[in-house]
Amino acid sequence: MAKRTKKPPAPPARVAAPKGSSGGAFARYLASAVREAHGAGSADTLDVSEAVGDPVGYVPWGNIAIQRAVGSNCPLGRFIEFSGWESSGKSTALDQLFASCQRIDGGIGVLADTERGRVRTYMTQLGVLPETLVWVGGKTIEEMFEEVETVVKQSTSLRNRAWADALTRAGVKVGKLPTVMFNIFDPHDHQSKRKPIASWPIVQWTNAARAALIEYQAREGLPTTGIRDAVTAASLKPVVILGVDDDRNEMKAALENWTAGIPDDRCQPADAPIIIGWDSVAATPAQKELDAAAGDSHPAIAAKLIRFNLRRLSAEINDQGISIVMVNQKYNKLNMGPMAARGPKTETYGGGGPKYYSSVRLSYRKIGLLYARSTDRAAGLSPIGQMVEVHCFKNKLGSPERKESFAIIYGRGAVDAWAFYSDLKDRGIIKVGGAWSSFTDPTLAPSAGSWQRGWAGLETIMNATPGLEAKLRQIYLEGAR
Fold it and tell me: Are 181 and 136 in contact (CB under 8 A)?
């Protein structure tokens, strides 16, 4: 007769923590212990502010379809990757992001042009302002990162000093900020005792300065995060003053103009956005690759350099609200056996660095040509643009895996009217009959009636109807899948 086994006792039921339990007090105590040991602003519980851990600000993409795919504007202080096949609109998307950033007071674009494939006239047609676009032309990964780091470090120093001066003017004691020397070395010089070819003193932002900022935030009723976010900047109004050569009278005059809201070329908001675009990852060799012979192989040397430098810049660009956009290319992987066949068939250059450090990764794909009239293609006429699909397959700011379509008009870039027309037509908000289009809700644009020429006609109506573009933008964004 089989021996009867004893049934094991049931595990105890999990008891949910009651609301208002002592866990919150314990968490605040731990955060305060970290602050006491490591300085003000080093730790806090997330209930202090919803902004803790979020980007310090945003810049419009300059393309409504990208905004809908990501679910937000372009975050500042983050790495972003644009990837795709050739002629899919990646560089155009970067240029329109530059133009959008430059429209914000003090906004600056920085183009790390390692590909050498830019045309200035096309960039200006897309809205890029040459006077506020910095061009850096490093030929190798090492040179490019050193030039970008110089931009980041110098911007950091100016902003740190500006915020400290603004706190002092607001009556908060900051104290003198320390400086460290930022050294630039010749990438071709590998000697152990090499000397720098350039050096600058860089002003540092200390725990004492962060404590002063928290004191100001508490006094003004702002979230006491110690973060130099957009809300604090709007209240404190820190300013970078340049071109005065330490002349106190000129500095005073520039500051008076800034305080009074009078435009002054010497003054720039310390929180102004900076977008750095690296175009492109695939076109930038490592120095060892340039020094090698044609048949030499240096596996993963570029990927290692990229990962190393992205790690070095990660915390600093986040603190300063500087975004780095990496334009990358796709390539087909070779079929090296059954294991390789199971994985993805395509890959991007640069190894895992761009993948893992990017907060947003966007893939661009050309999906068709665009003609002025439906009969132009059969007539052998040239297209006026191309249709592109953007796929947001990594997104730390919202939902990933969204796909949207937009049109690039040659000489103009992405045009929002095409995205509006295509989407609203699919959703039944715009009805089409033959060559005529109209809104199913005539109150959207009472004077519009019916129009011809599809999206181009809609763009004409938008330009002639105040407020219509804002309405269509809201409707379009609400339709995100």
Answer: no
Give CA–CA dist 75/328, Å, rounded: 19
DSSP string, 243-258: SSTT-HHHHHHHHHHH
Helix (H) or strand (E) holding 420: helix 416-426
Q: What is the DSSP letter of 3?
A: P
Of the listed ranges 132-141, 172-181, 261-270, 329-338, the least confidently predicted one is 329-338
Question: For residue 176, with 0-12 CB atoms within 10 Å meaning exposed, 13-18 middle and 19 or more buried, which class applies?
Answer: exposed
Rounded to whole angstroms, the Cα distance separating 74 from 67 reads 8
Cα-Cα-Cα-Cα dihedral sign, residues 356, 358, 359, 363? negative
**CB 199: neighbour CB atoms within 10 A?**
11
Is there a contact between 276 and 323 (Cβ–Cβ < 8 Å)?
A: yes
Expressed in angstroms, the distance from the first to the final Cα of the chain is: 64
Q: Of 149, 137, 460, which Cα lies nearest the Cα of 317?
A: 149
Residue 220 CB neighbour total at 10 angstroms? 13
Return the structure tokens found at 288: 């060892």
At residue 258, the pLDDT reads 92
Q: Domains in the chain, please, with CATH?
A: 41-414 (3.40.50.300), 416-481 (3.30.250)
**Cα–Cα nearest to 29, from 7, 45, 53:** 45
Query: With a threshold of 0.70, does the pTM exceed it?
Result: yes
Provide CB contacts within 8 A for 80, sequence distance 6+. 74, 323, 324, 325, 326, 358, 359, 360, 361, 362
Dump pLDDT digits (tens) for 352-387: 999 999 999 999 999 999 999 989 999 999 999 999
Residue burial 317-342, b: 16+ Cβ < 10 Å; e: rest: bbebbbbbbbbbbbeeeeeeeeeeee
Q: Supply the Cα-derived Rg of the chain in whole angstroms.
A: 27
Nearest Cα to 391, choosing from 94, 93, 84?
84
Return contacts of 20-26, CB within 8 angstroms, 24+ apart.
Answer: none
CA-nearest of 405, 422, 411 to 456 is 422
Task: In whole angstroms, give the CA distance from residue 109 to residue 133.
Answer: 5
Q: What is the pLDDT of residue 77?
A: 94
**More confidently predicted of 346 and 359:** 359
pLDDT tens digits, residue range 396-431? 999 999 999 999 999 999 999 999 999 999 999 999
Single-letter code of the amino acid located at 222: L
- Taking 3-state DSSP, the helix, strand and coil percentages for the chain, each rounded to the nearest 5, stand at 40, 20, 40
**Phi, psi (5° rounding) for residue 187?**
-65, -15
E strand or H helix at 320: helix 301-320
